[in-house]
Amino acid sequence: MRILITNDDGINAPGLAVLEEIAIALAGDATAVWTVAPAFEQSGVGHCISYTRPMMISEMAERRYAAEGSPADCVLAGLHDVMKDARPDLVLSGVNRGNNAAENAVYSGTVGAAMEAALQGVPAVALSQYYGPKTRDLPDPFECARTHGLPVLRRLLDKGVWTQDDYGIFYNINFPPCPGSEVRGIRAARQGFRRDMGFGVQPHTAPSGRRFLWVTGAPQHEPTSPGSDADVNLQGYVSVTPMRADLTAHDALEALKAIE
């Protein structure tokens, strides 16, 4: 199995090193794992692609490349340049530093990379490590993902739903904010929504007098609806959420026929 890995935290991010370990174990051969990751951090860029400018790509080591672009750009570079003569069987994105559950998934470059792979017809999984009081002070904050990443992926590849339709399914995995020994299991979960948790901006004035806006986030441990991804994460479960790039609100189509 050939695997392409990427992330949105940048090629030197510790979570990418964790993902490389997981991918090598999954492939069973280090020479079957290729890395194409952003040269610099690209958190929060979603499914952005560098459509209006070129991106430089540099070979850092054998089968390891840094691209001056978004995570989705890195997937395109991997599929159509770096691995064009032997496309990967699987794309893995992560392991993200922080959760990409609930509304975070909409903004996530980690998820955006998996989405692009799915649009290109390649099975893909995004992986993220929820941070919290039980994980942030661990010697290895990714210990939960490091411990459970391989068995969860093996189970997903064996038992998951994989489609070849126009908007193929890809998966968003979030590891809970607890040590690996406290994980209670795996839960298939829908994407949640943290109410009153949206992003905002905070203005600042620089010494030069110029005005800048910092984008602000919100606490990540607020409850979401029962059974959703962030909800089961906070209960100690690994969440596995099937996703598609299709943005159609299918539940509203029938009612919308009234305008015809």
TrEMBL record:
Predominant cellular place of this UniProt entry's protein: cytoplasm
Keywords tagged on the record: Cytoplasm, Hydrolase, Metal-binding, Nucleotide-binding
Required co-factors: a divalent metal cation
Molecular functions (GO terms): 3'-nucleotidase activity
Cited InterPro entries: SurE, SurE-like_Pase/nucleotidase, SurE-like_sf
Cofactor binding comment, as recorded: Binds 1 divalent metal cation per subunit.
UniProt EC number: 3.1.3.5
Chain residues that bind a divalent metal cation: 8-9, 43, 96
NCBIfam families xrefs: PRK00346.1-4, PRK13931.1, surE
Function in brief: Nucleotidase that shows phosphatase activity on nucleoside 5'-monophosphates.
HAMAP family: SurE
Entry protein name: 5'-nucleotidase SurE
